[in-house]
Write a structure and sequence with these properties.
Subcellular location: Cell outer membrane
CATH superfamily of the largest domain: TonB-dependent receptor, beta-barrel domain
GO cellular component, one term: cell outer membrane
CATH architecture of the largest domain: Beta Barrel
Number of helices: 6
Number of domains: 2
Radius of gyration: 29 Å
Largest sheet: 22 strands, antiparallel, barrel
Distance between the termini: 38 Å
Protein name: TonB-dependent receptor
Number of strands: 50
Family: Belongs to the TonB-dependent receptor family.
CATH class of the largest domain: Mainly Beta
Low-confidence stretches: 1-17, 98-109
Shape: globular
Mean pLDDT: 84
CATH topology of the largest domain: Maltoporin, Chain A
Membrane topology: Multi-pass membrane protein
Length: about 800
């Protein structure tokens, strides 16, 4: 806190002798309306600021002659000189600036959408708002920003996804310009894979998910790439210690064909040993790139293509070894290649037809360099996804709009293959691929029958079909021994599922600043990720539903109260939710999914419940702005197996891996002037559940722990403070170039948050003062135990 006070004192200025107060009043010349956020630049002090909601700005400056430059988007610049020898008030009236534009793109956000919209648990963030999020390791990041939202968490420093309202990571549908992302992070979860400079908006749905989305039972994170509506060249990017990036927007054919392209690379091998001694043998590098072409053949047609590529490589020696493979470390090499073709046809001013073709390929690979050998053993899997969607939408009037559509998806999963290379220590293995089809139809209507009542109702019908080639196994009563197998030829029906998925949102406005909302959603999930850790590794398995694996089904209910204060400058929200889930996946004790032909041996399906209350406070405007969220929640699971050996906690309810009863997130941005922005982000949450042994048994002179209950203890409380300082500047003689420096400190006070805890047999009197007479020793594993510094230079040229 002392550091922050010093920084603010230094940059925002304290009073000095021979100073006078200079006050500005900036208004519109025609209407006299105050202009909020007008830019005031003062020379020769190179100082200034932005006006408040009343168009006012006050500064204390030494006696001198100053040149004042006042600018505001859409208005002509005003330049004048003043002599400051006493307290002075300056009134400036700005004229609107008329320009000829080839096309006008209207982007507007309803400042009272949290009160007006019937959508519950929804959050929309624009590009401008994304950039106001506290920078994580040198740059703003989508997933890090989402973890500041009530009910959204990750599994710690090393986590490649989000847990929304106690759900598992694979229960979230993550879309990047309509294409699915199966692994959304770089560098052990510190970065998301989404190229920062090309992002347009982010939408998160946690409650009544709109009917156009399906396939995941917990949430939808829909990330859009900018449409490159540009008439001149624009460059942007950043150079940093952890990653560097570059983006370009330019017209190719004026008013017809435009492009935006961005890329990013991170080479962090040299930083990791500095962060932690445990990471001295760790290597990591990543790349991602996005390109979007926009073609406007006519006034009523818009065609775009988005391409996305992401690649990661990292080496860890902290991961458990794989049986029969003698390797000192594990190397992970995984990539994603997506393409989206989007055609929007405007039938008239109120009706539109959108057709979307998506292809996605996710290819994770694990490499095992054999000890004392140049040979490498490779394990590889793949997911291919192909989708076609056609959607018609119409705005009937101000009170009624609707859309309806159909969607056809094809999935192909290659569960895994093992290539021993030139070695002979292991045999080659290739698991049979899985092919599935999903055909859906959906409709959604938004209707305001009364001035204070609005409804959002949707319905989705899905039909899933698994086809051959496929081998279906039957098991004995223990669920482990295969008694029979049935082989299905290519194209033969293996199993099909279908079901209705209703969605409903209701909003009742009590007055212009208060509303009550209720919601309901039912969703089916036919693909699941199988893993037995808190975060899926690239070796984790994706599995389609068949006769033995039933689809996950959820019903989610919500109720909320929302209130705006101070002319909508402060937003308050209180939401409660309850979700019951069937056929949740849980692993049996001792489960090992690596190259397992029949996952049924290691997996059981049970019940899940999640419920909680979320409080949110948001102040989006002003020199000091930010938000505060607190969540109390429960996320519990229960097995239903009749077989005693397959029961988890004897079929009693137990905490899921993602249960965090208490979570607090707070973010504050200090925008003292137009040059300096200081951000602080604090997160604190209950430690995640983990399993401790209930006893031990001696086998061949070794003390082996016994685990009779799952998730029967918790790690210590997780808390972390992040600091970000952005210094902006622009040279008046070259307004085309704008740059800023961003300095960030992740984990400011060096909190050592445990990522995991494990038990081993003690040798002799090792740590006898801690473990006393216990034959087992308990040890905590932390990834970061010191601050992580980053410095990035960001620029825009146009």
């Amino acid at each position: 806190m002392l550091l922050v006070i010093c920084v603010l004192s230094f940059n925002f200025g304290l009073g000095q002798d021979s100073e006078h107060k200079l006050t500005f009043k900036i208004v519109d010349f025609t209407t006299g309306k105050p202009l909020e956020s007008a830019d005031v630049f003062i020379q020769p002090c190179d100082c200034g600021g932005i006006t408040d909601r009343d168009g006012l700005l006050s500064l204390n400056l030494p006696e001198n002659r100053y040149q004042i430059i006042v600018s505001y988007i859409g208005y002509k610049e005003d330049v004048r000189s003043v002599v400051l020898d006493k307290d002075l008030s300056v009134s400036v009236k700005l004229y609107e600036q008329e320009e000829q534009l080839s096309e006008v793109i209207v982007r507007a956000k309803n400042l009272t959408s949290n009160i007006e919209s019937p959508q519950m648990g929804a959050l929309e963030i624009s590009t401008q708002e994304l950039k106001k999020l506290p920078a994580a390791v040198g740059e703003f990041d989508v997933l890090k920003g989402m973890t500041l939202v009530a009910g959204v968490n990750n599994a710690g420093e090393v986590s490649n996804g989000l847990s929304v309202r106690g759900g598992s990571l694979d229960q979230n549908l993550i879309l990047y310009d309509y294409a699915p992302i199966f692994n959304p992070t770089h560098l052990f979860g510190l970065f998301s894979v989404f190229t920062p400079d090309v992002l347009s908006s982010v939408e998160l749905y946690r409650a009544n998910i709109p009917s156009r989305y399906g396939g995941r039972i917990t949430s939808v994170l829909d990330i859009k790439v900018k449409n490159p509506y540009v008439d001149k060249l624009k460059l942007s990017g950043g150079v940093g210690l952890v990653s560097s990036r570059f983006a370009i927007e330019t017209p190719i054919i004026k008013d017809k064909l435009m492009v935006i392209a961005g890329g990013r690379a991170g080479l962090t091998d040299f930083l990791l040993p500095i962060v932690s001694k445990r990471l001295k043998n760790t290597k990591a590098r990543f790349y991602d790139g996005t390109i979007k072409l926009m073609y406007l053949p006519s006034e009523n047609n818009q065609i775009s293509f988005t391409g996305f590529y992401s690649k990661d490589f990292y080496q860890l020696d902290l991961i458990s070894k794989v049986d029969d493979i003698n390797a000192e470390n594990n190397q992970y090499d995984f990539k994603t290649l997506n393409g989206t073709l989007n055609w929007l046809y405007s039938i008239n001013e109120k009706s539109r037809l959108r057709t979307i073709l998506v292809a996605s390929d996710y290819n994770p690979k694990t490499i095992f360099p054999e000890v004392d050998s140049d040979n490498e053993i490779e394990y590889e899997s793949r997911i291919n996804y192909l989708s076609l969607t056609s959607e018609f939408s119409k705005d009937v009037n101000e009170k009624l709009d609707y859309y309806l559509g159909i969607q056809a998806n094809k999935y192909k999963i290659d569960p895994g293959s093992l290539d021993p290379g030139a070695g002979n220590s292991v045999l080659p293995v290739s698991l049979t691929s899985e092919t599935g089809y999903e055909l859906s139809s959906y409709a959604n209507i938004n209707w305001s029958p009364l001035e204070n009542l609005s409804l959002s109702g949707g319905i989705r019908f899905t039909n899933f079909l698994l086809v051959g080639p496929y081998t279906l196994a039957q098991f004995d009563e223990t669920g482990e021994a295969v008694t029979n197998t049935q082989f299905f030829d290519k194209g033969d029906k293996v199993k099909s599922y279908s079901g209705w998925e209703p969605r409903l949102g209701i909003n009742l406005k009590l007055n212009n600043s208060t509303s009550l909302k209720a919601s309901y959603a039912k969703v089916n999930q036919y693909m699941q990720n199988v893993y037995n850790s808190t975060t899926p590794l690239p070796t984790s398995r994706w599995k389609m539903s068949d006769s033995n694996f039933k689809p996950q089904k959820s019903n989610t209910y919500g109720f909320g109260v929302y209130k705006n204060l101070g002319d909508d400058t402060v937003e308050l929200g209180l939401e409660g939710y309850y979700r019951d889930t069937k056929n949740v996946l849980a692993y049996k004790p001792g489960a090992d999914f690596f190259l397992e032909e029949f996952l049924e041996r290691d997996i059981i399906q049970g019940l899940g419940e999640s419920y909680g209350v979320e409080f949110s406070f948001k102040k989006p405007k002003g020199r000091i702005n930010g938000w505060f969220n607190y969540t109390w929640s429960k996320s519990i699971l229960r097995s239903q197996s009749e077989n005693l050996t397959d029961r988890i906690n004897n079929n009693n309810w137990y905490s899921s891996d993602f249960e965090r009863p208490h979570v607090l997130n707070a973010t504050v941005n200090f925008e003292g002037n137009k040059y300096n922005t200081v951000s602080l982000n604090f997160t604190g949450q209950s430690g995640r559940p983990y399993t401790i042994p209930t006893g031990y048994v001696e086998i061949e002179n070794k003390n082996v722990p016994i685990y009779l209950e799952r998730n029967n203890s918790r790690l210590p409380i997780y808390h972390r403070l992040d600091f970000s300082w952005t210094v902006k500047y622009s040279k008046k003689e070259n307004k085309r170039w704008i740059g800023d420096w961003t300095f960030t400190v992740y984990n400011l006070y060096g909190r050592r948050n445990p990522f995991n805890s494990y038990y081993t047999q003690r040798v002799g009197d090792e740590n006898s003062d801690i473990f006393l007479g216990s034959p087992l020793g308990s040890y905590e594993l932390s990834i970061l135990n010191s601050p992580l510094f980053a410095l990035t230079y960001n620029f825009v040229f146009q």
